[in-house]
Amino acid sequence: MLKDFLVHIPVDDRTNAIIDCSISLAQHFGAHLDGVVRVYETFNSAVAIAVPSTAMELTTVFEPNLEIAAGILEQFETAAKAAGIPHGFRTICEEASSVWQSATDLSRLYDLIVVAQPDLGKPTNDDPLVETLLLRGGRPLLVVPYIHRGPLQANHIMICWDGGSSAARAVHDAMPFLRKATTVDVVAVNGSEAAARNAPEALKDHLARHGVAAHVHRLFSDETEVHDVLLSFAADVDAGLIVMGGYGHSKLREYVLGGVTRGILETMTVPVLMSH
Prior knowledge:
Elements: E1 4-8, H1 15-29, E2 32-43, H2 45-48, E3 60-63, H3 66-83, E4 87-95, H4 96-107, E5 112-116, H5 129-136, E6 141-144, E7 156-160, H6 165-180, E8 183-189, H7 193-197, H8 200-209, E9 214-219, H9 226-237, E10 241-245, E11 248-251, E12 254-257, H10 259-267, E13 272-275
Parallel strand pairs: 1-2, 1-5, 2-4, 5-6, 7-8, 7-10, 8-9, 10-13
Antiparallel strand pairs: 2-3, 6-13, 11-12
């Protein structure tokens, strides 16, 4: 059962969408919802030139402004109260790398983490958050597209199945959603070796034993276009939620996402439940 969610609220034009989506999610499961806003402390070296140490605190810059962050949390609290859901809220205010570590540590205490898709056209300090939480958080993510509006629509779910461990974890994490869905599609693209051992038809049987009726679809694509094929199919069947494994690894203190994972995160059009 899903009992508690954490939503990371961005302080930009994605705010309303992610608050609405997370609150509808908490209502759907009768769960507790906590909201958190991240404030990044930066050191303004230009201002600091020739500044005595006693005045050094004046060179600390907060992004976003602390008052703006407080206003976003007030907006979240008002919406949560109106929806009648149990909730809490807090601010993480630290230097950037510490913010991501604190966000990762905090996220491990919840059943599901709701985050906003980065908008590559509008870079922010939050952009590394999704892949950091995916690869280090140990909890499933619900990534909400920046174009999303309104509540979560999870009646029709599409599972991206390649037979791998991350996909299996995602299916397990999504089971509460799958049991509530009216339509579930299992989609396999270009059957991999793992998918040959764990065929989508076998997953269909597994889901049936959990009371979930699923339809299997086999699609084909060039390796560089798999994410486009998946998103096109989701649009064709009007899926409201995609479930998939998130692949990646750390390299030289950076995170390298798999090609399909990155492609989906960059071009997604519906919310994606992703597990690593």
